[in-house]
Protein 1
Amino acid sequence: MTNSNKRPLTLRDVSEASGVSEMTVSRVLRNKGDVSEATRQKVQEAAKKLGYVPNKIAGALASQRVNLVAVIIPSLGNMVFPEVLSGISDVLADTPLQPVVGVTDYLPEREEKVLFEMLSWRPSGVIIAGLEHSEASRAMLARAGIPVVEIMDIDGEPIDSCVGISHRRAGRIMAEEIIAAGYRKIGFMGTKMPLDHRARKRFEGFTQTLAKAGIEIVDQEFYSGGSALAKGREMTEAMLKRSPDLDFLYYSNDMIGAGGLLHLLEKGADIPGEIGLAGFNGVELLDGLPRKLTTMDACRREIGETAARIIAEQNAEGASQKPQRIEISPKLSLGDTLRRP
Amino acid sequence: MTNSNKRPLTLRDVSEASGVSEMTVSRVLRNKGDVSEATRQKVQEAAKKLGYVPNKIAGALASQRVNLVAVIIPSLGNMVFPEVLSGISDVLADTPLQPVVGVTDYLPEREEKVLFEMLSWRPSGVIIAGLEHSEASRAMLARAGIPVVEIMDIDGEPIDSCVGISHRRAGRIMAEEIIAAGYRKIGFMGTKMPLDHRARKRFEGFTQTLAKAGIEIVDQEFYSGGSALAKGREMTEAMLKRSPDLDFLYYSNDMIGAGGLLHLLEKGADIPGEIGLAGFNGVELLDGLPRKLTTMDACRREIGETAARIIAEQNAEGASQKPQRIEISPKLSLGDTLRRP
DNA sequence: TTGAAAGCGCTAACAT
DNA sequence: ATGTTAGCGCTTTCAA
């Protein structure tokens, strides 16, 4: 209707259409500086009529500021990360900042590449999952000169700030609960761990605590890929065939735990009397299962919110820039699959 | 180690460190133009040693090209969209293009805002869910002068290209199956529809087909928010209390269908004899339930891949720019919850 | 194969 | 309250 040719509109077009200088047009469009109501009207009208969309590339280059926050996570298919994201978005919605997501598929080399790409847009901050990164990644982050928040985990050395839970402690707490409930023959199922440091740390905390009580894991199995629910079923069936005397199954995530639960319910197992179960994450998705799985809420939303708040604060006026280290306490959710003392 | 001060490095720094002109440094870093092996070495070494990260803002402004594809979807919590995304990423991985995601929460005004924000970065293309957009959004897309692919749905008038399934047809096909299987007292459960046009179209196709067979929906209920699994349970229980003679339940998505399934199994219902169930989407997530829910695969990955391919092609050399309209056929998955004739 | 000049579209800083 | 000037850090184009 107004602009059918190819060339995108520039400030100059709006300036000419409204008879106001480019500079003043720019001020109106950014609500910056004093502009009389009259010219403001004229400009806004012209911009709308033309369908002008500002060019942030040019704006960013000129102002040396990009209101983007790079958010780097391992996966979107995991339920867990969309929740973190939603916490981040909610907090950033009240600021000029906008999240931009990059996905690494749990691969350090992908992380390195994604990070490089995102940093080359000169974002105002980085939120990145985990504390384990390649040397090159750490160097890039350290040199970027922007706030960096590592999230989800606090067992390690952050580059700048970090917000998360202690997965070691989470594993320990669950182990203590299980021991207190009187279970002794414990099996473990989870993802292949070289990929997933947080799962590994939970496992370590878990086994170490058992060890202190003189208990050793009876059986364990690791998987990768596929539908977690189905995997949970299969692994559980296989493990109980191998080790029929197990009285507790600890799963590294709720989805495989749910699969195990469904399998045992079908078999008519007495849960939590004969055998107990626990997962990890506290995914809301599973509310509505026949039994509520014992699990531990990793407070993903809260982590996202807190991380975003740190970035937002450090981008505000009198930014302190002081690294923060915030430990969130995961919440134990007893559910129905652990014997009550 | 190399750059502890704040100012980010520029091409000039690399130029000085390597004793090569900025222009040639630029050529090396982009693999463009002929550069002697000797200088190439020098430059790459210097860049790596300094930890130089190119400034894409400046590059984009100078070259008038931004290798980003805006992907605009209603939600990340829906399982469905991450799959579309993963199809898009996979295809774009073989090109210079990179997806950037924006989320609308199913709100037209959010969509408008997200779209405006993304267009102001001058992306090389837009992939956007659905065919229903505000006038302003349509105008922006039409004027952007870049390829636009509307995805997931083809029942309507695309702005440029579109890739998706016909949800009306999907509803119709499911209705035909249900009728053929001999069910007659049919209930429907789904999301509140003003938000979700695709669910609405399925519902329309479904009811119209039933109508042709002289069948009218006996009962229906709509929900929003909360855990879909739990909602499916609750709604199913409530509906069967209200309308005990129902012999089929059609759910607008697999998650609530799964909730209904779990509820009915617990009640000891005879499925699919006494009562049948069907959902929509074919989410892999649910593989591992006690019964396989009858559903229809919306081919989300394929849709994402195809859309990305269109954008990539139109950004290639002799770009045709001709709008494409691609209908994908959803795959019926009979499962265990529909009587076999 | 390499370099120099010009400018992408905007905004900071400084007039007026 | 509004306008003018000078870049932001790159790449395009043209010259050597």
Note: Chain A has twelve helices and twelve strands.
Protein 2
Amino acid sequence: MDQLSRLFAALTDPTRRDLVARLTEGDATVGELAAPYDMSVQAVSKHLKVLEQAGLVSRAGPAHRSPVHLEAEVFDLMTGWIERYRRCAEERYRRLDTLLAAMNEGTSNDEQPLEETA
Amino acid sequence: MDQLSRLFAALTDPTRRDLVARLTEGDATVGELAAPYDMSVQAVSKHLKVLEQAGLVSRAGPAHRSPVHLEAEVFDLMTGWIERYRRCAEERYRRLDTLLAAMNEGTSNDEQPLEETA
DNA sequence: ACCTCCCTCAACCATTCGGTTGACGATGAC
DNA sequence: GTCATCGTCAACCGAATGGTTGAGGGAGGT
């Protein structure tokens, strides 16, 4: 599985999104993170492993009780992907709008529409 | 499942991300969309249903061969969530940096660190 | 009317996911 | 050294996912 898929997959689960949200307020140990949930510590540990493999989270060290840390930079991978295609779509809409405006203006068919299949 | 979870889940699959990418270039029928993949048409139809339930895609009509259309606005839901927490994290780093800078400057302990648990 | 093509529905299958419980390993307090 | 506490590993389970095949339904061409 590629990094982008792992990122989207990691944030699919509401519990994991909540963990990310809480980590924006500061590092925390696994126990602290697990406390609020009606769920076993092992389950939270698994969630953290998923976040870690997605690159969203890192451990300060291998030691006991070492805090979990949020790696916010990888968000850019997702926003990059999203923005790219959102921008494309908007650009297309803009072109479509101007085309429709032109068609309303005069009924000249000189300019060919977007593509042959449009 | 909430909308945000459906969105992230929908974009987890590379095939679905590719479908979205292709739809930024214009509407297309199911057949056209399915053609490039080494996969049955039914599978692509399922993928489109997932994208549709996530709100990323809509059908022009119930009719035969009606084109599939990309709904780019819902991207904002995701970017909204992501940006919110990325911003929080960056803000925290900024505060941490200024704190560390202050500690390097003079060794005064007058200002208490971020939080009691930090 | 008929036939064909496009698409979806339904059933099935293997794999993954999100949770549990139980056992274990390492740390740190005493 | 001993013991409790914290965290992970492993096995298991039910539900969801991503794919298949087969059948069916509806629009259009002739």
Note: The longest helix of chain B spans residues 75-105.
